[in-house]
Amino acid sequence: MTPANRRLVIIHNPTSGMRNKSRFSMALLRLAETRCEVEILKTSGPGHATFLTQELISRNDPDLVLVAAGGDGTVSEILNGLTGGALPLGVIPLGTANVLARELGIGVSIDKAVETLARADPVPAYTAVANDKRFLLMLGAGYDSLAVAALRSDQKKRFGAIAYVIAAVRAISGFRDMKLDIKVNGTQYSAGTVVISKAKYYGGPFIIAPDGGLDKPRLDVLLFQGSGILNALRYGVALLLNRISRLPDVETLVTDMPIVLTASREFPCQCDGDGGLVTPVNISLDPKPLMILRAAV
């Protein structure tokens, strides 16, 4: 596959907001100025992106690049349709946090996204599996997963990132009693919140694992000992200042071994920003990397 004969198949959710429609139109105009062939597949509901991805793999086309036009949720659906390095993956950032696009050096820039799709060579990125769900960015249980469980899709579409703050307020009652158990490298730990990260970034432009990265076959495990609303505020400020990993009650472990996350009762987890997963959860690295398009440094 070379830029001269690259065929982009874009999986796009047409129900996104007006601002995202404008950004997507801009991306298509920029792509029309390149030598890429472009095909657009529109999703019709939850899970459809996974189905479309599996269909694209069956084409067995070595010059095809799969493009996620959306946010991290769209990427997550596509990721769970990919097997190993079957197809290289690119992104057009249209979501709320766009963590993957930031990891890839694209950020929220449409111009940089198009440049990357048209010219970048695929590089390996290691994914992980939580029970039967693959993830590329992170798995969380605690403050973040309770907020995701309380998130309303209509408010997310209307308010963007503010919807997560509204959801966190709605979930405050659950912040008082959080106790999770996790086995890492053969040792058992307890924490109020656990974040298992493949990525350096979290929730947008905020750095949670300074030494992490998609190109590394490892997991960064952050254990937050505190619970309750005051600790939630303290952790939130530290995240905004990119100092979360420096807090004395936040321990960071590194592993390439399987992890087991449990709780005394069924506890919700979020995986790449999506809910639906509950403890107990078995997490492991996928030994075969995904191929992904990263912006030039």
Strand order in the largest sheet: 7-6-19-16-9-10
Q: Give the SSE string.
A: EHEHEHEHHEEEEHHHEEEEEEHEEEEEE
C-alpha termini separation:
21 Å
* Extended strand count: 20
Q: Which class best fits the helix and strand makeup?
A: alpha+beta
- How big a fraction of the residues is strand? 25-35%
- Uncertain ranges: none
Radius of gyration: 19 Å
Number of helices: 9
Helix % is 25-40%
Q: Major sheet, described briefly?
A: 6 strands, antiparallel
Shape: globular
Mean pLDDT: 90
Q: Which key terms come to mind for this protein?
A:
297 residues; globular; alpha+beta; six-stranded antiparallel sheet
Question: Can you describe this structure?
Answer:
- By secondary structure, this protein is an alpha+beta fold.
- It is 28% helix and 31% strand.
- The protein is built from 9 helices and 20 strands.
- The chain has a 6-stranded antiparallel beta sheet, with no helix packed on it.
- The longest helix is centred in the N-terminal third of the chain and has 14 residues, at 18-31.
- It is globular and about 55 Å long.
- The two termini are 21 Å apart.
What is the topology?
Blueprint: E1 7-12, H1 18-31, E2 37-42, H2 48-57, E3 64-70, H3 72-79, E4 89-93, H4 99-103, H5 110-119, E5 122-125, E6 128-130, E7 133-135, E8 138-141, H6 143-150, H7 153-159, H8 162-170, E9 180-184, E10 187-191, E11 193-197, E12 201-202, E13 206-207, E14 219-224, H9 228-240, E15 250-255, E16 259-263, E17 268-271, E18 274-278, E19 281-285, E20 290-293
Parallel strand pairs: 1-2, 1-3, 3-4
Antiparallel strand pairs: 5-20, 6-7, 6-19, 8-11, 8-17, 9-10, 9-16, 11-14, 12-13, 14-15, 16-19, 17-18
